Amino acid sequence: MIVQEYLLASFGVFLTALGLVIFLIPNNIAAGGASGLAIVLNRFVSLSVGVWMYVINITLFLIAFVLVGFDFSFKTIYCTFLLNFLIDLFDRIFPIFKYTGDTIVAVFFGNLLTAVGMAIAFSQNASTGGTDILAKIFNKFFGAPMGMSILFLDISIGVMAGLAYDLNTGMYSVLSIVLNGTMIDFVLKGLELSVNVWIISNKYEEIKDFVLNELERGVTILDVIGGYTGQKRRMLLVALKRRELHELISNIKRIDPHAFFIVNEARNVYGEGFKELI
């Protein structure tokens, strides 16, 4: 399970790096975060964006460690520096194709890739550092909500891009920040969608064992009575992510082709393996 989480988070970071290197960085679109600030600083000191991101993130982690304590998961640190490494790799060491055509096209596809990538990383409880780190400091000392702090910091970086380059660059950068946030929310809703499955089967023990041992999900066993037959039966209730549903249904059919089950969407599921209670 841990290996799968890191692989998915790494894939998300890989997509984010592609979006930045191919579309956003070549067009100086500072879409917030450490990468956006690095694009602004690159205007004044000619270090690569990847190197600037190392400098920014190491500095921010050190400041946060002194001011708020070490409140970051290893996964976040890993994703932060993996993104730095991949950007430096694709931008400077093994350069890949960079799109410098229509800026609107660059904004759209750059944010599409970065939003999908970041949403995948977020779904594995990881982030890529940057303004998230500063937002923690703002939250501790000023009581500012994390979401508002991140938005304020990112838009400030977009404005700085306008001052460093030109007005159009600044406006495209702010547009990117808004578009990126909207796309991340949209993708996360799809990734995080959960379902409830209600299962009635004579082989409920085998299905229960599959869910517990293979899917590593919890199962609730309910005593039910058939309205027509009056028979007492056992029903299983399973909550799981939508992406796991196909595997469950396939194995229900394998174990008991005559099983009866109902699937319905669950808007919010809280607890172990799902959303954390805050």
Number of strand segments: 4
Strand order of the largest sheet: 2-3-1-4
Order of helices and strands, N to C?
A: HHHHHHHHEHEEHE
Termini Cα gap: 23 Å
Largest sheet: 4 strands, antiparallel
Helix content: 55-70%
Number of helices: 10
| Global geometry | elongated
List the domain count as a whole number: 2
Average pLDDT works out at 88
| Contiguous uncertain segments of 5+ residues | none
Structural class: alpha+beta
The value of Rg in angstroms is 23 Å
What features would you describe in this structure?
It is a single chain. The protein has helices at 2-24, 33-42, 49-68, 74-93, 103-123, 131-142, 146-164, 167-192, 204-215, 245-255, and strands at 194-200, 220-225, 232-241, 260-266. With 278 residues, the protein is of the alpha+beta class. A four-stranded antiparallel beta sheet has the order 2-3-1-4, with helices on one face. It starts with a helix and ends in a 12-residue tail after the last strand. The relative contact order is 0.13.
